[in-house]
């Protein structure tokens, strides 16, 4: 798996992401600066990492979404290339129009930094094939604007087309209000685009991939991507 | 020319910041506040003196960057 990690000013999770990708694929990811206008040849996966691009000025992800590299990412996605956005990366993909909806201020107005549980809603996608459908995984979150909102029609379509891949839940896998940490519509933690090749998620799977982190539940996402690309090759 | 773009949340969109400000005003004893919605104001200096062109520029700025039209409305004004 040849991956490219985008780097914007103010992004701070790109090294964690690169490390997780290296562990999963055995290959060094390319770090791609936002002012570039093309992706490295042969890229299989583009990752928009977390952080605070442009200090969250204007709206989270708004300025990064208009960076020169994003036109290349749009073309890449339009050709079926896999794109993963985590945290600020999810916000950037929404602002760039690659995913529907918007990440609003957390309903309780607080920055939340803790482990959460997510239920994997289906396992037949490149982003979830490392898990079983219904499996509950534990991953960290760290955000102030992760409250996913979209209009009723969009939510209906997301649900009807099975595009909600990850949902906040209790440790037992129950979707309820207390486990919906940021007030997201339908407890949404991660969604894919219509074609299923662009995933945005608020939690950080890249921070639960090694034993020293105390949990390795995030590994499945990366292992699944590697397996998907190997099978496609 | 001086110009202003005002960006506001569409009605029906939850505004937790506005709610918090509303609560703070009430706790300060400011009477008669029924509700608060928070928005943004951009004061922009436009070069040239063509008002119609300035409005088109402001509209482009709002559509491309200043507002997220999924959740926000905007209004452009050329002030002088």
Overview features:
heterodimer, A: 233 residues, alpha/beta, Rossmann fold, nine-stranded mixed sheet, two-stranded antiparallel sheet, 5 helices, 11 strands, B: 80 residues, alpha+beta, Mth169, Chain: A, three-stranded antiparallel sheet, 26% strand
Task: Give a nutshell description of this structure.
With 233 residues, chain A is of the alpha/beta class.
CATH class of chain A, anyone?
Alpha Beta
Return the string of H and E elements of chain A. Answer: EHEEHEHEEEEHEEEH
**Under the CATH scheme, which class of chain B?**
Alpha Beta
Report the CATH architecture of chain B.
2-Layer Sandwich
Helices of chain B, by number, come to 2
Q: How would you name the CATH homologous superfamily of chain A?
A: Class I glutamine amidotransferase (GATase) domain
What share of residues are in beta strands of chain B? 25-35%
Say what the CATH topology of chain A is: Rossmann fold
Average pLDDT number of chain A: 97
Multimerization state:
heterodimer
- Summed over residues and divided by their number, the pLDDT of chain B gives a mean of 94
Helix residue percentage of chain A: 10-25%
As laid out across the biggest beta sheet of chain A, the strand order is 2-1-3-4-11-10-9-6-7
Envelope shape of chain B: elongated
Distance from N terminus to C terminus of chain B (CA atoms, Å) equals: 6 Å
Can you lay out the helices and strands and say which pair or pack?
The complex is a heterodimer of chains A (233) and B (80).
Chain A: E1 3-7, H1 14-25, E2 30-33, E3 45-48, H2 69-78, E4 82-86, H3 88-95, E5 102-104, E6 112-120, E7 136-143, E8 147-149, H4 152-160, E9 164-169, E10 188-192, E11 198-201, H5 219-232
Parallel strand pairs in A: 1-2, 1-3, 3-4, 4-11
Antiparallel strand pairs in A: 5-8, 6-7, 6-9, 9-10, 10-11
Helix pairs in contact in A: 1-5
Chain B: E1 2-9, H1 16-27, E2 40-45, H2 51-66, E3 72-78
Antiparallel strand pairs in B: 1-2, 1-3
